Amino acid sequence: MQTSEVKSKFESILNEQEDVSTGIAAIMTLMEVLKHYNSITIQGLIEELKVAMEAMKDTNYSAAAITSGCELFRRFITLGTMDYHTFDECKEIMLKRGNLFLKKLKEAKGKVMKLGSQFIIDGSKILTHSRSRVVLHTLREAAKQNRYFEVFVTKSQPDDSGIRMCKDLTELNIPCTLILDSAIGYVMEEVDFVMVGAEAVVESGGIVNKIGSYTMAVCAKAMNKPFYVLAESFKFSRVFPLNQSDLPDEYKYSPEMRKRDLSKEHPLVDYTPPALITLLFTDLGILTPSAVSDELIKLYL
Amino acid sequence: MKVAAEKKDIKVETKHIQKSKNEGCELSKSQQTRVTSKKSNSELNTHFITNKEKLNTNIQAPSSILPFIERTKLEESKVKVVKEPEKACIEGLSKAEIKAQRRAIQDAQRNAKINQKSIVNDKQPEKSIKKVENKKAIPLKTEVFKTLDKHRVSLFNHLYFEEFEKLQSLKNFTICNNGVHPVFFKLGEEYRSKSILGSNARCLALLSAFKTLVIDFKTPPNQEFYRSLELTIGVCVSYLNKCRPLAVSMTNAVRTIKLLLTQSDINETDIEKKKNVLERIDRYIQDDIDTAGEAISLRVQEKVSNGDVILTYGYSSLIKRILVDAHKREKRFKVIVLDSRPLLEGKEMLRRLVCNDIPCSYLLINAASFVMSRVTKVLLGAHALLANGYVMSRTGTAQVALVANAYKKPVLVCCENYKFCERAQTDSFVYNEIGDCEALATINTSERSTELVNWKNYKKLAPLNLMYDVTPSDLVTAVVTEIAVLPCTSVPVILRIRPGE
Fold first, then answer.
1. How far off is chain B from A108, nearest CA to CA, in Å?
2. Cα dist. B287→A23, A171, B57, B140, B201 in Å?
């Protein structure tokens, strides 16, 4: 597949299927590449997949999510299939595995929803940031169980994704208030807990998420409010940022921004260190930040 | 009589070594260039990890061991040291060459021994050692308490070495010999005088001593090679432990080697067994110490960016290696070396970094909070990583980490996997080591003599020179090991997955 083909395929998956998150879309795209691959060497396939990964990272979607998705694909689908005799056998096994893997990943959100919704009790006030599919679905799940709660959503500059989140929540008949990003400190004293999604969960147990999450976490810590993160385990990625400046540039800036002078550009994501996170709700269970690295070691070693 | 005979033996060795040393110098240079060219092939970190096995075979000369040698060479003027097997592996000769050299060494030693007609291992070692211990234990205890109790800090009473008893037992050891190979007497002296410092250097010295022991070892009649070697190693190690308590790295190395001795095939000839053991020791040095260091260095270099100001404390061979490697990769950064009395290890670090053209500044630990605001990253070495995620390292490390944490600077602890330890510890009292109290009394920086010089005259004065302290895991941002960059809390997971235990 050509680079442009990969890109358009990836983007079309994300546009057509509302429910699919970036990481899964990346894996689906790689599956397409695998399906259409017609040469007969493993080495060639690996090269082709690499090219596809780079192509996807060049789009305007979160590089953090794409990277972790691709890493998982490499780890579980392409690695360890070398002991079959013919390439076609290999390919078949890979496709089979890939489909099974995708099925499992799609179930992940359900598990997270189930765990997360338990923590929303009647009368709670929740603060959330930007738009996250998992958070939205969890709130919907809790509303389905006839719990009454209130949500504050930040407007979340620069893409104003909070406005969309607010609209979605209103459609679900969940009372919600749109607040300014700068009003986080103001509303913090009246909320019960903070619930956010994540683009990637990193090895330290911290998260990489839409810019402003760190501010929210610091505020929550100062006010002693729990800070919950909802994330499926395919978002776990093997990076260990030490601080904000240590985050890879491809995470922080879109491909177009990277062409310009970075000192004048505004980052799109920030890193929230594990010390500020209370719990992470994942399909592996409810984890403390320190358990994330244990799970990652189990996954990759 | 026997002591004199031993001296002769050592002399023979020394001559031989001097020769091989001269040859070695030239060889090692060419070898180094070969190694660097090979390294560049495997620049990518991930690539490196997956191809670990392959790489191990590629690199013949463990470059990390070179600095240790430099260091010991420096100190050889103080204590005459002979260290052959280490040299052999450093020069990175081909296997055949190493074998030839070993054979030559063996021959020389055999001849020397025949002349003296005293063979080290012929006496059954374990029995006599037990006798010696039984004898000394009873009469000495009371005397010791009378003479030495007054200059002790009671909280650390369990850590004090029975100075008197120690010397006595050492004497017993040296006189009766007890199957301790002469190389361990030298090594013990080096440990005691602290001319070999740092847990990597100590462990490497120990392993090379083991190699000498294996080469010289003769199976006692009616005994199996591995079993009797294991016993002899046990005796030698307990002798070393009396000279200075073993480092965690050493305990782990000894355990691994003993384990491989018990797992080995006994249906081989002694020569094959020897070869086997030597190979395994070499592989341990390669895999667990040298290649591990390289992997860590690669990982940390990703974290070092241009314009960084890196603070480090004391002298850690691993940190030095990382900084030098990063500098070679044309990263532009500055280093602040913190140091503390009485060992002033940081001077060594400073010397080596400056030799490599890295911009440095040097301060004592009491200026830590003054410089910390300018620092961007803190890199620390470790003596051991404990099972609860705490870091055991030279005294002062906890203080540096605390200051760094107060200024919210990332603290990276670099530690090879073989230094991980199953013990859990939250304070520095239970397990520690007490250094020479005399070292606190003398201040070589001031011209005037201090009151402290006569500290033994003051009944109530008890100087305390602790060697290690324990840094809580929440002061450490990340631990860098050859497996991964981890938060401290994941140390138990690594311990769990470690093979062979």
1. 24
2. 36, 60, 10, 44, 16
